[in-house]
Amino acid sequence: MIKEIQAKVLLSHVKQPDTWFGLKYNMNLYRGCQHQCIYCDSRSECYQIENFDSEVLVKANAIELLRKELERKRVKGTIGMGSMNDPYMPLEKDVDLTGQALQCIAQFRFSVHIITKSVLVLRDLDTLCEINGRYAATTFTITTADDELAKKLEPGASLVSDRLKAMRVLADHGIHTGVTLMPVLPFIEDNEENITQIVHKAREHGAAYIIPSFGMTLRDRQRAYYYGKLDRLFPGLRKKYEHRFGNQYHCAANNAEQLGRLFYKLCDRYGIATRMTPYEPETAAQLSLF
Description:
The protein has ten helices and twelve strands. It has 290 residues and is of the alpha/beta class. It has a single domain, classed as Alpha-Beta Barrel (TIM Barrel). The protein is globular.
């Protein structure tokens, strides 16, 4: 179900410094997500998103509100998109909030960082190139190199192989692009072959960086949903989670340290960064009185 709502505030300030993506502001144009990733942390009760899997709320006044907020901002900075949902979920093809928002960001000369699992981002390639006169980055979440496994884990998202092709297009157009390798699901994705394949494929398709997190989060509604999916997709695996993690919030991947060493060794070999360097907007130099 898709429902329109009116937002009161669109841009939120990100606690500084943002050591993950170098963001100054964060923005979500939707509530809920159609990609239906079985591990999504946004189902957690703390985010207060009811009916996450059955209803997407569209912030109908988002573009008008964004324009007003950008006009008032004295400090330029990078605006993040994709923290609580995918800005390029399927309905974006018709609603076009993300596309319109990027045009506003370009007009007011802000920079942007997008996290997505969708090739629909290529629709806005021209706008991203315009923003990239300052700074534009697009990060593709990739947790497995296997399309068939990804169909189970992220049933509404673009195929991993197609995300990689889209990354190549963005890189060839000078857009700063790379991968968030997170989560790495215990007992499913935490093996050397998977990590190696992701790094190799990311390199082949122009990734400038890969940001990892070797494990996943599990809490309240997120855990209940995930375990239900494990029962259906990976029978018997739930018991391993319950035995090893109990009610822990952070669930580390098996052999996380070993996987980390392999990952950083590969990235060092191929010259792939493992963190993003924050973009710093240029500031006018103060003129000397003498």
